[in-house]
Specification:
This protein is of the alpha/beta class and 330 residues long. Helices cover 50% and strands 19% of the residues. It has a five-stranded mixed β-sheet with strand order 3-2-1-4-5, with helices on both faces. A five-stranded mixed β-sheet has the order 8-7-6-9-10, sandwiched between helices. A hairpin with a 5-residue loop joins β7 and β8.
Length: 330
């Protein structure tokens, strides 16, 4: 049997996806995150082994049925230690089987564009862009970490919510829906309670701060001009990240370069997509819909490293597209 395993690991969740050689999904498993900086290599190894065992058991197969494996995981190519340890973990898990580990932004790119040239811009808790040119060269921009980068992300906008509240509370900006929403959602008795709330409930909690973006979106949709402007500013930051990748991979290219946008921020809808799309299309980036989720991108890459030809990969892409939709994996 010729099966393929794709793994999409992130800071908060991990998806294991097992398919046959035609792209039919045999099983999948969702687990929590595999953040090297938070849980270390040993715990990641245990999670990878557990998730793999689950999908193989669900499908009634064994490791010996795998033709290739691809895993997208955070911090690869960013941490020298993790970049050394991860290939060793996969080699021990899958002896004699082609097994590749990549940065999670790369498998997101492969899924979003179906292994075709272009750029994928991710804006979720953090922000990063990754691209692939016609010669299969890769480049990235952004994604350094929330303290010094991640511009335009949900975390960046969550921080912006708190900053805008202080300005509206002070009178540096006119008070609007944002001010009242923060008071209500945080249960503040006085404006200055925000400082204690932030220190006790938010400081050091990246995901909690990122989740505040939802409140900012509500304020923007209710007509708060400061909140709306925050999304215009976020769009400019995200466009700059994408354009840096374009400059590296497609310098002087007169043809439109496809770009897909993925991540939780885009659930905010047109308050972010409209200004971002204007920014991108004015610089010859062609707004495109993502083709596949990241785990399916990892499956595609596994098929590629197993030696499948471009025509076969195209057929698998189409099959995965319908399969991912029917399994609710988009």
């Amino acid at each position: 049997m010729r099966l393929f395993l794709g793994i999409d690991g992130g800071g908060t969740k991990t998806l294991f996806l097992l398919t046959d050689g035609e792209g039919a999904i045999l099983s999948f498993k969702k687990l929590d995150g595999v953040d090297f900086n938070q849980i270390g290599a040993d715990n990641i190894s245990r999670k990878l082994q557990g998730g793999t065992a689950d999908v193989l058991r669900q499908a009634g197969v064994t490791c010996h049925d795998l033709a290739a494996v691809c895993a997208g995981l955070p911090y690869l190519d960013e941490s020298a230690e993790w970049s050394r340890q991860c290939p060793q973990i996969l080699a021990e898990m899958f002896p004699g089987i082609p097994a590749l580990c990549l940065n999670d932004s790369v498998v997101a790119l492969y899924g979003a564009l179906g292994l075709q040239p272009g750029i994928n811009l991710v804006a979720g808790t953090g922000s990063i862009a990754c691209g692939r040119d016609r010669n299969n060269n890769l480049a990235r921009s952004g994604g350094w970490n929330e303290h010094i980068s991640d511009e335009g992300s949900c975390y960046w906008l969550g921080q912006k919510l708190c900053s805008l509240f202080t300005k509206q509370a002070d009178g540096r900006l006119p008070r609007g829906p944002l001010y009242h929403l923060v008071r209500t959602e945080f249960g503040l008795q006085s404006d200055f309670d925000l400082a204690a709330y932030y220190q006790e409930k938010l400081f050091g909690h990246r995901e909690r701060i990122a989740a505040l973006q939802i409140i900012l979106a509500r304020a923007a949709q209710m007509g708060d001009p400061s909140a709306a402007q925050a999304y215009v500013d976020a769009a400019a930051e995200l466009a700059a990240i994408a354009l840096a990748v374009k400059a590296k991979l497609f310098p002087g290219d007169d043809q439109p370069v496809p770009i897909t946008c993925t991540g939780g921020l885009f659930k905010a809808g047109r308050i972010i997509t409209d200004p971002l799309r204007r920014q991108l299309e004015s610089r010859n980036l062609l707004w495109s819909q993502p083709i596949l989720p990241p785990a399916a991108g990892a499956v595609l890459k596994a098929c590629e490293i197993a030696g499948l030809k471009p025509a076969e990969l195209m057929k698998i892409t189409e099959k995965l597209k319908s399969e991912a939709k029917s399994h609710g994996l988009h």
